[in-house]
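Exercise: predict the fold of this chain.
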Amino acid sequence: MTASTPGTTPGATPQVSIVVIVYDDAAHITDAVRSALSQGSCVAEVVVVDDASTDATPERLTRLAAADPRVRVITRTENSGGCGTPRNQGLAAARSPYVMLLDSDDVLAPDAVRTLLATAVAEQAEVTAGVCVRRELPAGTDTPWQRDLFPAVGAPPRRYDGIDARPEFLRDTLCVNKLYLRDFLDKHQVRFAEGAVHYEDFVFTARLYAARPRLVAVGETVYLWHVRREAGRQSISLRRDEVRNWQDRVDAHAEAIRILDGAGAPGLADAARTKFIDHDLRMYVRELRQKPAAYRTAWWRIARTHLAGFGPAPAAAASPAGRWLSDLLLARPEPVDGAELARACELAASPPRLAPPYLTDDDGSPVLAAGVPLTGLDALPPGRLPLAVDGSLRLGPVCAVRLRVHDPYGLVSAAGPINAQLELRTRLGPPLSVRRRLELTPHADGGWTASTTVDAFELRDVGEMTAWSLRVGLGFADGSRAVTAVRAPGLGKRHAVVHRPPLRFALVQAYGTTNGELGLRVADGVRGGWEVVRARLRRILARLG
């Protein structure tokens, strides 16, 4: 006798309802709905919940519904102020045994539903998760989200009866890259927080994981998360200039912890606290030096209050950099500034950097700041040392790169570096890299210097405009390797027009990123100039919009 999929009629082919939420997004809703409809016959319906849009969204939806009977539109008369209420309304209206969620400005990857549904049926899974890719627009740069949680493409799926054995899955707080058995959500009352609640995914996924579903992870990409940083209305996760954004994030995280504790999963609750230290905290700390004093004061108070309730176990399980930053916050009632703030921001980078000056306490032990020891720094394996490398660029047809590799507390030299390499990676467009071997020369004040060159026209020929990050890797005698982004201390923006006979021109720009890293932009002299103008116009129009 063959077992049937829960929630389906024996012998029937199960289908999926896709719930799409939208508010004032006429520019993108058609692409989102069509990406759902194009999944084929496995999609029984696309339930679109319009959260009282005031733009041309209703007209777009009317046309979509007229063109395909699978489109069902639910129109709300009052805006909910968040994403949770319309998603809950769509889940309640869904009729298929399986459901997926889709935002109006994103799209499903081709064959996403078929892949997830086939796996769910074969594995009797209550939740089936696939890879989400963050796509930066308009550049088109793709970055997989939490890729290490998923198997390789084509590899067998990973199966979990609850995530207690793999608490790292708490890092996947997205609700949109998963296929859900609707009966499971209903049975365990897994729903979103209602009303004007932000970071509602945190609460939803906490309820989901607390219910200990049979979860299966596949390696295929199923969801394309579109990140439009120049958009007139930023997504919630990108509005980090507002202290309210941080408060909303902390509130959602606190609610997720309460849910996990209340479900009798204290181990998962502590894992969620560790995730906060290693991910959320570091992501915001690395941006603090660009914030005004009033923001830093409010942010610091909120963070300290939240961390104070964690206890020692979550910090002990965190990465060294996360642990040191947590210790700093708890040790200082008021936010640090100046050199101490700069050091904290460097440690919050990914990978973390420990930049000079290298402070010690009275007995010579390393400290992040007065009274905040860098506990465990001297026990780190070479490949996990927080390297710091400063860089400068002399612009020309062939750009000269000069590097200063620091030696924090003598730990790098003690580990025995045996080789070094500079790698330039594309920030925009297709993933490409250019590598240069480095010869390290000891510096009189400790550490090393190195220099190399990069042909601007080699970089230019990749595309009309390319942006490159610079990274240095050190290989050690034990076979390990440490990598860090090159810092750009004090660098603003410098540019030059360079020429190579007979008639080749390029625009070259060196700049410091918001995280203090060295970047290089190279563009075709004519086309690149026009692209610069277009990019500036896009930013101006986004601000006006």
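Check your answer against the key: The chain has a mean pLDDT of 91.
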